[in-house]
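The protein record quoted in full:
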Amino acid sequence: MRESDNNVRRIVIRFIVAAVFLVLLFRVAKMQFFNEEFTDYAESLVRVEQTVYPTRGDIYDRNGEFLAQSRECYDLMVTYDDLEDEGFDTMRLCSLIDIDKQKLIKSLSRIKKDAYMRLKPVKVIGYVTKEAKLQLEELSIPGFSFVSRTIRWYPRKIAGNVLGYLSEVNEQGLKSDPYYELGDYLGETALERSYEKVLRGEKGVEVLIKDSKTVIQGAYMEGQYDKVAIPGKDIVCTIDGRLQAFAEELLVGKVGAVVAIEPSTGEVLVMASSPGYNPDDLLGRERGNNYMKLLNTPTKPLNKRAIDGKYHPGSVFKLVQGLIALQEGVLYPEKQYPCHGGYTYGKNKKLGCHAHPSPLSLQDAVAHSCNAYFCHVFTNILNNRTKYKNTKEAYEAWREYILSFGFGRKLGIDIAGEDAGYIHTVEKHDADHRHGWGPTNIISISIGQVVECTPLQIANLAAIIANRGHYYIPHLVKSVEGEESIDKKYLEPQYVKVEPRHFEPIVEGMWRSVNRQGGGTSRIAYILGLDVCGKTGTAQNSVRGKLTKDDHSVFLTFAPRNNPKIAMAVYIEHGGSGSSIAAPIASLVEEMYLTDTVVRHDLVRMVKSRKIDYSKYYKAESK
């Protein structure tokens, strides 16, 4: 009986062992032959997916010359778990890629602590040259690889504030757009930012195989699983590179901006902010250091003053006052007003004016920039009781006119950072003048004080007058590769609330300002045979709430008078009168554009030699 029991036990045990073996065999077979998850995992041990970065689109000027071009460089990547235990020649590696040894060790330690980062290629350092890459590849150090990138190169070294720059994507960028991965670059400012999705292209993927020593052996399955990267699209900018470079030369030693527009299209020919910067300074490994230097420079070279500088327009604002008064019917061109050294109002208060003939008509008031004349004009607008029941209602109507000219709001240019400027509301005046207010309380608005605008808005005013009542939204991109047209909004005319017929007296006054012998504040802008129209402006300004002795210099111009080709504004901080420095700069840029040369070399030397000491102003502002 006992022998029989033992036999049964042996049979049962054998059966259990066999059953367990069969179950294990089945599970192994299933994992090996039927489970895709484990199959993929096994293949991933020999396959490597590597991102292929597209070539970034180039940026050309309107004449087909490069403003921003792409060049090849490399990121050095490390897959930490593929590094050899015995280590590698750290000093040789650091020498080839020009990196500090401690920085390399710190990067590797950071990767080592992250279990996820250890398994995938992570960037160690960027901007590795092709020569260094080839030398390092000869060493065949397991765990290290390269990813091809494109970086910017700026042949003309101009228009940094227009082109913008690239920077490594931050945490916010990673969250907002799944396109980006850690270590990617994206457009940070200006055109590079606004047209990022056009310029960046689409990433590709290259599937490679590596051997047991983690050395890449070639393409997986002859590349049939690869995805080709799609290059970014080129864009043609509206900027005239030669004209931009000339304007930047003239601005050296000055703080301000030059903006020039083609009136018939709204295309921006020049957008120069000063001081500017060499766009190459925000490339490569020194980018961070250079950025901090620019950021901490008192005169703020990174500011796009052409579109974000908020200034009083000064006397160029008189042109708008005259146009509104003509439309409102409270002024006609032949109407004369006296000027006895200024405009007297209130209890023995006086807004002064410079010496000129008196009385003056509208055209001559524009030509001589008479303060008293436009104080009368502004007062008549606000006191128009045939249309408005009180001053506040008249002011609201006046403000709507101003907004139609593009002041007090963003024009909508195709780069980020544009400021709207500021036009006081009725509520603001109520708050400032709690006991009531009328024209005399805000009389300085008549000559362009109190209100704030950007140089772009002033240049757009020049385009409006050149076109006799309409403008095209200023824009910086002329065309995008492969696209039929730019955004339609840039092709549609925008009309102001003043009829075209009212512009002729203003145009005549601007022409007289430049072209009449012995008269007019803009005579320095005269160019033989070009029928230049212009208007000077002198804007008071303050530092820490106190008026300074050195006014801002402003000039608005277009040429020729009929069928104008260029409209422009120049604004120079602390430059003095409009005729002293802003007008000469504008005139030289006009001459270059319209005649393809400059013959007034003495004027060029005068402008370039004019350097303004800004230390007292910007030190005061930074306290």
